[in-house]
């Protein structure tokens, strides 16, 4: 499915502006985006080979899709090398490198240790870590029973995920690796992640929280957080169940449940409903502050997301015109510790239940409002802050100074060395860690009371 639109007079673009859109699923989201642009005078165009577009929304990334991009003139959804943040191994590598550098360079902040928000993880595509995992598992099993979850680094919708639940499973996996069974290099690119066996439950069911990280502008960086929604399983939680739908909360997996159509509305909660539930069930019993969900929990998510952004800030392709909306999934365990499960590019934006019909359209509209406002202000050399379109999104980081963006006659003035360094769509080699350059405005300190 491809969509392109043309605009008559929006913000300060040229008289005719075109919008190109490619989406592989959900017609309702296609209609929602079309409605957004229709109401603002944009017109759709249908050829992906045209180069006179102003905004291109792509789901899948390929060199061909970025070939026609012109920095400072075009807007394009998805930063080309966002895999340093949105793949499981990419994020793991970025955080490890950042933690190593962070011990020496604090930038005035107290960064979290990875073990405070990332479950123990081993890369199975690296021999040393693979052997360390098998050794660790054997020792750990002698002390306590533990489970591990294996996720393909580029996977989505629950595809390719499996659990290691007993002492025999890792032995079988080790045998498969040692005999090269079913694991060619691409298949071996998955991390083994320690499974949180005692998650907090809502009415006996496992859940996680989908929040959003918006990089609305890359030159200068403008980064935002937004609340999303709670995703629950259909079935009551049983850690020893062989049914993946008991362990995975995403809607693609839950839709396979035989009673999903009847339970659908109860598999997605609003953050307000989650907050009310925690106030009623856990505030007194666990000694939590009132509105823990909307207060301490929200701040913790923001703190983690900010650290993840800083881990990739000097790696991302920051040519002006790129923007990205990233889905961030968090789990809360029974002791109310917050864990980051993963960050995903191109998060699902379909709205097939009442909560999503409220959350998704507002998220999409404000994402585009902020992106267009920032792009327009930079082109016109206007002061960036305050942002008239900012409503539900919370600013995590601003690289904008108080004065207007420095521009050339044809758009944003660029640091050519930085562009050359960042334009590649491939992540850096593991052994190389780039230091930070320049003096950005300091990040507002984020504190958390958990």
Brief overview:
Residues 414-450 are annotated as: Disordered. With 450 residues, the chain is α+β, with helices and mostly antiparallel strands.
Name its key features:
D-amino Acid Aminotransferase, Chain A, domain 1, Dna Ligase, domain 1, 3 domains, 10-stranded mixed beta sheet, 4-stranded antiparallel beta sheet, 13 helices, 31% helix, globular, TTLL10, Tubulin tyrosine ligase like 10
Structural class, by secondary structure, is alpha+beta
State the low-pLDDT regions, or none.
Answer: 1-16, 181-187, 402-450
* Assigned CATH superfamily of the largest domain: ATP-grasp fold, B domain
The rough form would be described as globular
Distance between the termini: 45 Å
Which architecture of the largest domain per CATH? 2-Layer Sandwich
Which sequence of SSEs, written as H and E, runs from N to C? EEHEEHEHHEHEEHHEEEHHEHHEEHEEEH
Number of strands: 17
Which CATH class of the largest domain?
Answer: Alpha Beta
Can you give the mean pLDDT? 79
Give the strand content: 15-25%
Helix content: 25-40%
The radius of gyration computed from the alpha-carbon positions, rounded to a whole number of angstroms, is 22 Å
How many separate helices?
Answer: 13
Total tally of structural domains = 3
CATH topology of the largest domain: D-amino Acid Aminotransferase, Chain A, domain 1
Report the sheet with the most strands, covering strand number, pairing sense and barrel closure: 10 strands, mixed
């Amino acid at each position: 499915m491809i969509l392109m639109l043309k605009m008559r007079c929006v913000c300060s673009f040229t008289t005719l502006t075109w919008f190109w859109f490619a989406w592989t699923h959900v017609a309702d989201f296609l209609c929602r985006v079309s409605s957004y642009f229709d109401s603002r005078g944009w017109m759709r165009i249908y050829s992906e080979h045209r180069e006179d577009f102003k905004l291109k929304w792509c789901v899948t990334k390929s060199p061909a899709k970025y070939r026609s991009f012109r920095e400072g003139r075009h807007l394009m959804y998805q930063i080309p090398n966002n895999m340093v943040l949105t793949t499981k191994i990419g994020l793991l590598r970025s955080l490890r490198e950042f933690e190593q550098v962070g011990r020496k360079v604090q930038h005035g902040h107290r960064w979290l240790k990875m073990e405070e928000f990332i479950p123990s993880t081993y890369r199975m595509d690296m021999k040393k870590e693979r052997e360390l995992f098998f050794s660790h598992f054997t020792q750990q099993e002698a002390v306590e029973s533990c489970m591990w979850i294996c996720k393909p680094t580029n996977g989505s919708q629950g595809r390719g995920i499996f659990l290691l639940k007993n002492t025999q499973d890792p032995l079988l996996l080790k045998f498969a690796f040692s005999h090269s069974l079913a694991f060619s290099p691409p298949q071996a690119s998955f991390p083994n992640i320690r499974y949180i066996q005692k998650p907090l439950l809502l009415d006996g069911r496992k859940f996680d929280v989908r929040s959003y990280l918006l990089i609305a502008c890359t030159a200068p960086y403008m980064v935002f957080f937004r609340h999303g929604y709670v995703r629950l399983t259909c079935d009551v939680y049983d850690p020893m169940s062989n049914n993946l739908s008991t362990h995975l909360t995403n809607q693609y997996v839950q839709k396979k449940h035989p009673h999903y159509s009847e339970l659908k509305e109860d598999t997605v909660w609003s953050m307000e409903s989650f907050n009310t539930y925690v106030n009623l069930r856990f505030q007194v019993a666990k000694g939590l502050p009132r509105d823990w969900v909307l207060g301490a929990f929200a701040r913790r998510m923001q703190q983690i997301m900010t650290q993840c952004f800083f881990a990739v800030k000097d790696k991302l392709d920051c040519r002006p015109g790129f923007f990205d909306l990233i889905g961030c999934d968090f789990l809360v365990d029974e002791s109310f510790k917050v864990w980051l499960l993963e960050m995903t590019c191109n998060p699902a934006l379909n709205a097939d239940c009442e909560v999503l019909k409220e959350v998704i359209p507002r998220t999409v509209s404000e994402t585009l409002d902020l992106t267009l406002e920032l792009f327009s202000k930079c082109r016109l050399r206007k002061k960036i802050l305050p942002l008239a379109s900012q409503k539900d999104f919370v600013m995590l980081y601003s690289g904008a100074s108080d004065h207007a963006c420095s521009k050339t006659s044809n758009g944003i003035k660029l640091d050519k060395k930085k562009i050359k360094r960042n334009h590649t769509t491939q992540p850096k080699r593991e052994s190389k860690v780039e230091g930070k350059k320049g003096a950005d405005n300091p990040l507002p300190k984020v504190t958390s009371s958990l």
